[in-house]
Amino acid sequence: MKKIFTIIIAFLLALQLFSQDFTGISICINPGHGGHDGDDRYIEETGFWESEGNLTKGLYLRDILESYGATIVMSRVTNTTADDLPLSQISQIANDNNVDFFQAIHSNGFDGVSNYPLMLFRGYDNAPIFPEAKEMGHIMWNMLWNNGNGWTQGGEKNRGDWSFYPQWGTQGLGVLRGLEMPGVLSEGSFHDYIPESWRLQNLDYRKHESWVFARSFVKYFTLDTFNIGNVAGIIRDPFTAPDYYSDPNTLDADAPIDTVTVTLNPGNLVYQVDTMHNGYFFFDSIAPGDYMLTYNARNFYFDSTMITVFPNQTSFDNKYLQIDTTIAPQVLYHSPVSSEGDSVALNQVFKIYFNYTMDESSVDSAISINPDANLEFSWDNESRVLAIKPQTIYIDGMHYTITISTAAMQIWNVPMQTPYVFDFYTKKRTHLVLEDTYPKEGLEEVSPGLQFRLYFDAPLDESTIAGNIVLYNANNDIVTTAGEIISEENGKGYYFFEPESELELNSYYKLAISESLTDAYGITLNNNKEINFKTIAEPYETGTVFIDFENISSWWDPDGSGSTTGTLDEFTTFTSSSDYVIGGSYSAKLNYAFENESGGVVRTHNTATPSVGSNQNSKIGFWVFGDMSYNILEYWFYPSSGYSPVYVDTINWAGWELKYIPFSDITGSGPARFTSLVVIQTEKGAKTGTMYFDNGQILSPVGIAENTQPELFMKPNYPNPFNTFTTFNYNLPYSAQVNLLVYNLLGQPVAVLINKKMIKGNHNYVWNAKGNNGENLKPGIYIYKFETIPLNDKSNIKIETGNCVLMK
Amino acid sequence: MKKILILLLLLCEVAVSQNITVLSNKKILSSDLEFYYPHFSPDGKKIAYTNQNFIGLYILNLKNKKTVQITDKQGAGYNPAFSNDGSTIYFRWNEYDGLKKYSSIYSKNLKNNQISVIESKRKNLSPPRIINNKLAYTINNNEIKKQITKADNSVPEKDIWACIEKQQIVIYENGNKKVLAPKGNGNYIWPELSPDKTKILFTFAGHGTFISDLSGNTIADLGYLNASKWLNNNWVVGMKDHDNGKIVTDSDIYMVSADGQKSIQLTHTDNIIEMYPDCLTNNSKIVYHTIDGNIYLMTLKID
To answer: What is the ipTM of this complex?
Structure first.
């Protein structure tokens, strides 16, 4: 065996010696980005970093071309922070080394559903600065297209950067603008299209792209072609769809198969397909001739293909393996899992995951439930996931058992070998529960453009809403409302609406909810509820608009940013919208969905990076339509160096509010530019949400401000003594974590009034004399403790205390 | 005009405290054609400049404000060289034969417009330099020198110059070649010998800009500074440009002392991106271009 291998290697080396020669030709290869830094791109679902993919391709291309005598200049050979070179340095590396050609290697990101090669050269489409670069773009695009897999769109995309990015005028791509010789930027494929992202995780898939580039250079320089070829392909299961998005009109509609053993004969070369859900195999530098490929995979029938290898080409065998139909199916798991202490909603949907394509009718018939209930069944397209839901609702406070018997069969009529049994417990409900509201009882400084939000523990009976949820002004007149949204999700009920016109400033309102309000199961609230609130005293102070969101073409889709992580790309979008608008015709709508319970980040980046000036006394703000998600909103800036995330607020409001941050919260000194709107997922934050943004603005102080930042103070609560309400007024000279707690005379905490991060400025909190559990506190003397912890100096903790007297 | 006045006020405010005054900062070329990469003639009377990506070469006479186009060839604007008396300009241009790149060096006498071919259609031909009244360049990394003008009465320069070969710094001195990699393996760019020829200024890509002696011993770390040039033996001028991975987002011109201890921001604008300065050595004048293709001339007073 060793002898055969040695002979093959010698043969390949001999082939190379008599193949074309790159001697005298020098090429600068720039693997784009570097070091997992700010402008790198990361795909959470697959673990792919663009900086790593670009570098691997670049190093393989270097090795191939150098082995044929080319002189290669690499802009980087490692992947560290220092490798993320300024664009001016990259082009100068090519210039100072006097190369014949420059190539920047990238992969692309856009909307998660697109995948095609894109070549960019300097100039306009039909007026390139270097005609040679356009010619190379044409060669390379066609090579990529003909050697790709799973393209979603056709049509040659070989574009001049001035035409492709018209918003940049003739500035164009920074990496091409300083070149003294022809150069191109290749976007080989789309790394945010998940099937492609999994392929890019295979190093040999990247190497194959390097071979495609190498053949492009052979054609460009009109050299003799390579005397060797490659063999590659993707192995798929024709009966299974991927569990991630794939274009149904491409080969990616069928799931790739992992861990297949592929053998190429003669030569007995073996390739082990990886576990990265790409099904990809690759045999490098194969002499022309006829070969046999054989495929071995667990649960699939053995298969083989005869294939001919041609010089200077890749011979593809995109193989479909037939599943072994004699295997017994089994349930992999069900979701959600319920226990006695973790009961489920009365309309809970359970999903059952099988390892095989099932015979649906046999499974439906094999399911029983105890105690008896009428169930509905629905299947996904591949008949592998079954959803079970009650036709009406389950009985509350009940223990149920669902059994799938061995009568359940896969599509080739092989039954399960053992039954699958699971238990669940339903919630005990005596009344409809109002779980959360916006605004909250006693809230002041409410925006006149708010959206009311009521969150219930069960879907509402819509016919009971009218007359049972009513908004009153201070004169007890009914205020007309509009924009009603009634919805349900995961067994919960939601009711959102808005005032028909903006509320009056500095005015008290009351939202009354009658105990007659009824849920979909006929259960009512246990008593009448009132939510009293007050609107802001003065209108929002508006500044000079620097982003109007009428055109958001300069903004990236969130998954285009390397900072976005832990999101479901297809549900995370940044689009133009006319749903809710402050000025002009459009606002920007941010939809987001986090994949896990915490740790997610959504960053939507504005490539225009407009200046926000350098006035330390100014404020920068956006109109933000909050979604009450309890996640955190940040604005990100580019100061003179690095970047500066600035905390704005916990998103605990619904509807429009104008959210400013002081310029002084931006790190560094000198001018700064705005870059991104960012939502940070918190542990108690919602996993999905929708926000709107409009009219970003800069508010500059009028005249010369004198001592615009008064000291930290907490005024004694007023009135004091008090009966039902008392107000705490305090000023923060900096953004801080604020804790306001009330204790009884025994030193026991009875109410946590504030526990949140707050921006600097003057604030009021109105306390309704209720304790932590909503109970009315007894009359008496209470002690409040006001604590501030500056966000940028956590050691500078300040505490103030005082007494307040609650009367009968 | 108002913008320029504000700019000057800002500049003066910063600069005076460093005993450096910006006497003037004027836009000297503004055109829809967009002009870039200006270079002084040694006598400071002319400025050579080019179009996008160094295509074509022009000369502006600062005295009579007249512009003349020397050529429209590819690459002609990349590091052209004036003769010491400013009467002749030498430049390299590129052509493609079967898409393979070949380069030639030409000269043009600016008094009689006579054009001469120095090298024709060579592979791996470097841009020309003028060293001690000789034309110096390399072919396939081998030094070529040609006497081009009659030696004048000025003190002869040291016969030494620097360039980049195979990603490293190369110093040619009296026909000998010395290779330097002062900071280890990596990419060295923008090498420039000091006016007194005792130090070399260079950028080590991704790590910053440095000054070393001619043996490669680091003398000063200038930090982040690109496309830097010597203003005199004590100061260098460069740009601090930033990008977002796709486009250049901002850039300003800075002056940094040769010991790396002082840094003075010479331009301080939010809406103008200033790049690629060139210095009239020992004469306190700087030219640079903006990203939208305007050329500025700045005059300093250094106390």
So the answer is: 0.94
